[in-house]
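S1.2 Input.
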Amino acid sequence: MKAKRRDFLKIMGLSSGILFVNPEDVFANEPMEIGKIDKDVYKTSLLDTDVCIAGGGMAGLCTAIAAARNGAKVVLMQDRSRLGGNASSEIRMHICGASAMNTLWREIGILEELVLTEAVTNPQKSWEMWDYILYDKVVSEKNITLLLDTILYDVETSGKRIKMIRGICSTTEQIYEIRANYFADCTGDAALAARAGAAYMRGREGRDVWNESLAVDKTDLKTMGNSILFNSKKFDKPLPFSPPEWARKFTANDFAHRPINSWEYGYWWIELGGMGDIIRDGQELRHELLSVVYGIWDYIKNSGNHPDSQNWALTWVGMIPGKRESRRIVGDYIMKQDDLQNPKMFDDRVAYGGWPLDDHPPEGMNNTGDAPFRSIRLEQPYSIPLRSLYSKDFENLTMAGRNISVSHVALSSTRVMATCATQGQAIGTAMAFCNRGNIMPRQLVNDKEKFATFQQKLLLDDQSLLGVINNSPDDLALRAKVKTSSETIEGKAKQVIDGIIRDIGDGSTHQWRADLSNGPQWIELKLDKSASIGQVHLTFDTGLHRQLRLSGEDWVMRAQERGPQPETVKDYTIELLKGKNTVQTLEVKGNYLRKRMHTFEAIQADRIRVWVTSTNGDSMARVFEVRCYG
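S1.3 Output.
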């Protein structure tokens, strides 16, 4: 059955206001005349949109979702058939971030939504299910047009603005010309910025450049290398392995600094490429990395030093190297070592990080006599300014990911995917915000009043900002009187309107807690007068003190709380009341998400009451925040 054109466009997101010039090419009705040869197989389509994003890794994906949810029409171009970049099933690197500090700082916002959804819907711990979750989140946003298998190859500029980018999809013989008001480079390699002619950095800056104590003595072009991972599985009989002739040979001495203590998922330290051009040497580098993988597996299976491996066999070997470093785009501000170790509360802060200063030697596996990394733990999270997330040269070019405006030393922390994802939510929200006001990101930073409003929008969408609290004049709850059926000493009801959306380690829980052992409990916000209410937002506890991530290592997965997080409210009811009458009711069952936004047809009410019936395992009802809007 042939799809109708309007149905196809709806599925692809091209009926959402984006101009698609020649859909007739997609639905050619006339068969090719016999004997006629049409060499013009690549057809060109023009897309006109608000925001165009190159790169569909965790940074680009969160950029797209944030921009779309804030009203912008978005085109997301990804050069692979799967989203997620280094976190996808093609590479399988687990998502790391500020939770490495083992405190309270697991990233929230869009990333938390994705991670919680994976923990619940992927009990089989399948990487392909993670791919599905990411794909579903993107295609379910009506404002996003997703172009998979589409590679950026050209950029057009005019003065200080990017006007158009071009991408090609060889599988569909399609060329896309995409015009947009704003562009985001989330390619990791800064491919968009470099093609446009924006300034970028590469390699390691010497100590004299910014007086960084962790910098190398002299500036060079060396970088951290790429890695290829593998999975293996234990079977019920011995499974021999014969390596290819081109596999490297290793001895026990090669693993003095690289312990082989399990082999179900290995190894981040299989790293090469930092001594050359990490981009242009990619084909040769992939083969060298594969030769290392199969050489290590040969050592595990055949050296005699790991007899327990006899029933183990490889089940997957990556064919796409995971990258750590290449180009870094120069923004209005370059973050440096001191910004991370002695964190500043930047006025234009929009995200945070907390991964250690984790630098890797460029030689990688070519020098197994040295340690594979240098890691310096951070004592507290650091803020990331918007000035480091847009280009100094092109006013409508933003960036998120490992290509942001940081020194090599700072990159050793900011490069990890959870941090990159929060950068993506920041710039996606910023571009949508700027689009509504017809301004550029630099203008937003320089307008303190507008920027304060923008930060409040980030908080509303559950993006955590260090030291910034909810003081939105539109939130009716902030002026309400709070009462409850019960509360604990550390979980006073009034904390749901203290403006802080998480535990920040200051001695306060910043949440209402009530014991459910005596039945359902409620919290009520009484407004000073009746108002038209159309939205109620709730923020729940999802155990941010724990790590939560998909990993190829069973011991990592066993150490996690998989499924719905026990602290999270599962079943609840929202009531809007006016006087003695209930004028609106919404019942929710089976919740596992942290942030829930409920929209009603606006109705006059003077009280909002939230009943908590049950959690996903905890004995306490826990609510960080209640908001309400007209």
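S1.4 Remarks. Residues 1-17, 19-28 have pLDDT under 50 and may be disordered.
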